[in-house]
Amino acid sequence: MPREDLFSKEAALKNQAKRELANGLEKDSIYKLRLQCFSRGATGILGLARAFRVMDDDGSKTLNLEEFKKGIIDIGLDVNESDIDDMFKRFDTDNNGTINMTEFLVKLRPPMSASRLDIIAKAFNKLDKNGDGQITVADLKNVYSVRDHPKYLSGEMTEKEILVDFLKNFEAGAPNPDGIVTKEEFDNYYATISASIDNDAYFDLVLRRAYKL
């Protein structure tokens, strides 16, 4: 599928989300946050996930209310205080003052069919050459050839610059771009792309073409 077509589908999703946010109708707080993320395109949910990861100092995958609030505010999402409190209370099921950020992000992402999750996993596993659960420039060197890239051929960019540029697709809007893409971040990125494509077979084709699966 031409890259331009994918961009036009993402643009349509962004515009649809903006229209829905502006229609004045009452919305569930989580659905409203999802629309806010969609209005930023494929990197909306990804940016929020990254903001949460920055604050998870001990790697426990849990956030208290202040951290949760700060993550949403830090990336500039327009969510009011009562919606933030409502979302937090709904996920703090044992009332211990913390929520599991992975569970929250899974709920925030639009649901995907098993076939879509499967093809996303295949794409990630192909790129994650050493199987450590994250994609880096070192992984990409083994699976992504830059030899036919126009900017490589013209001498404008080196191999490393092109590979870093590819990883930036998954880090746009992130508060801490680090050149590392985790499986969760890969899923978050493609969850929004998935929402812009109605047909399962078409989504499958997009990823098979993109990653030569």
Automatic annotation (TrEMBL):
A GO cellular component annotation here is:
organelle
- What are the entry keywords? Calcium, Metal-binding, Repeat
Question: In what residue span(s) does the EF-hand domain sit?
Answer: 43-78, 79-114, 115-150
Q: Mind listing the GO molecular function terms for this protein?
A: calcium ion binding
- Tell me the domain of life: Eukaryota
One family from Pfam that matches here is: EF-hand_7
Protein's UniProt keywords contain Lipid biosynthesis: no
Q: Which PROSITE patterns match?
A: EF_HAND_1, EF_HAND_2
Matching entries from InterPro entries are given as:
Ca-bind, EF-hand-dom_pair, EF_Hand_1_Ca_BS, EF_hand_dom
The record's listing under CDD domains reads: EFh
- What's the protein name? Calcyphosin-like protein
Organism whose genome encodes this protein: Drosophila albomicans
